[in-house]
Amino acid sequence: MYARVWQLRIRPGKVDEFENEMSSLVSMARRQPGYYGVLALRSGSADSPEVTLIAVWASLEAIRASEKNLFLMQAISRYLACCEGVPNVIEKEVLASDFIASAAAG
After folding, report:
1. Which of 1, 12, 15, 22 has its CA 20 to 30 A from that of 42?
2. What does the radius of gyration of the chain's CA atoms come to, in whole angstroms?
3. What is the mean pLDDT of residues 92-97?
4. Domain 2-105: which CATH class?
5. Distance CA 85, CA 5 (A)
6. Global pTM value
7. Distance linking the first and last C-alpha atoms of the chain
8. Which residue ranges make up each domain of the chain?
9. CA pair distance 86, 16, nearest whole angstrom
């Protein structure tokens, strides 16, 4: 498994818009082959939080396929409307995850 990790800062007054965009993007992501789910972490002020998104995928090939069908570009363009600057996006291999195994079993 692999994760695409996003680091973003929400602009003041855009938290609700960000949450709506994220909900829409999660619906789109669920239709992507190899997508397992996302975890959104929030810190900082309530009006302009820092957000880390961890989207988990079956493989690097699944991540690359999401880039080829423009899912990644759609996500970035929607987030840019709510965030300061360009999001930092990196990919990491998932070494272990009991969280996903527990969710799948439930």
Report:
1. 1
2. 14
3. 92
4. alpha beta
5. 16
6. 0.83
7. 19
8. 2-105
9. 19
